[in-house]
Amino acid sequence: MEPLPxxxxxxxxxxxxxxxxxxxxxxxxxxxHIERRVALKTIRRELxxxxxxxSLMARFRNEAQxxxxxxxPNIVSVYDYGETDGTAYIAMELxxxxxxxxxxxxxxxxxxxxxLGWFEQLLAALGFAHxxxxxxxxxxxxxxxxxxxxxxxxxxxxxxxxxxSSMTMVGSIVGTPSYMSPEQIxxxxxxxRSDLFSAAVVLYQMLTGHRPFVGASxxxxxxxxxxxxxxxxxxxxxxxxxxxxxxxFRALSKxxxxxFPCTAALRQALFRAVHKTGTSHQSDxxxxxxxxxxxxxxxxxxxxxPAALASGSLRGNGAPLAxxxxxxxxxxxxxxxxxxxxVARLLVARCAARTExxxxxxxxxxxxxxxxxxRRQFTEAFAEGTRAPAANHTTSADVSRxxxxxxxxxxxxxxxxxxVYLGPIAHxxxxxxxxxxxxxxxxxxxxxxxxxxxxxRVRFRRDVGLQ
Length: 467
Known about the structure:
GO terms for molecular function: ATP binding; protein serine/threonine kinase activity. The protein is α+β, with helices and mostly antiparallel strands.
């Protein structure tokens, strides 16, 4: 006889299965206390031998502790941990979408802008985790989810290392061999650079269609990770900029000290590599793709103290969004989107509800920007005496009739509006399209065509006065 279906676990109502594995089942569930749908990850302790049980439960609690201390748009939120009737569970954010692994199963390279966009979100998540003392240790496509809006979220912190935790796994091999760093395979201590190695393996797979280290057995894969240098990405996929090869080889270095020291440094190197290609191949649209990190930024991993950025007090008084002028929020959203992409709309809405003070709002948003350079640029945009206008309010029709030439301010304004929909690459797209447009209206038309989502395209056209 088949076991009776599970209808509830603790306070949670079970609505269906999302997946199952050797450790347990992940359910679609509902929290009746606050009326929220969640994903409920469970393990049944009696399925494991006594010797395994303690280690397994420690890993499971570690996942709840690691992810529970991280509140970031690109990390799956953990809401609750509990044990009941022989079952331990974690209640977490329900991500409606698909796993990155599903996109990579076909063995074909992903579109370069999409791959870099998702990788940028992965770096944002890892940078935030590392700043809070958490190393994931199992970055792989199966642990990277894409929601219905194309936003990437990191999940499964089951073997994460927490700096303040007494739990240690030094001397044991934990992770997935194809994506593990050499020091993990050797059973040595790990740090954020280990996560960056695994993230680089994921990027390599996205760009080429296959993993850099493959073999007939796990032992063979491990030997490759420890000894072999993979083929250059541009040799596997000729459409890739050759300048990316050096970045990838450094990110996949066997020597941890030779790798990029932090997410910001890797992000900066990617920007420089693609920017170099973009400026030398301006006629090739497929190669003109950039990540929004200033090329002159130094390899620094230190973030400014957000509290020092606010000249006013942070008033968590639930200020209604209506208290904010629409133009002011649009300005903040556009400038934040230039750093973090479309998720800026959600972040601004949440933070603006907590304060009516612009410096305080800026301080609340700064920690969500992954790069040191980006944080400085965002802060300086709102500094007293240097605040630049968010947009030139001259409509496309006005400029078209007057025959004015495009100015740098107009191109910048258009890029800020586009960034709400495309994210950091908007400035590069606008700069690329400006010389090809005879008027501001023409530029807006070209930028609208660059937005893949039809609904967003309509909103952009309305924002810039095309309809």
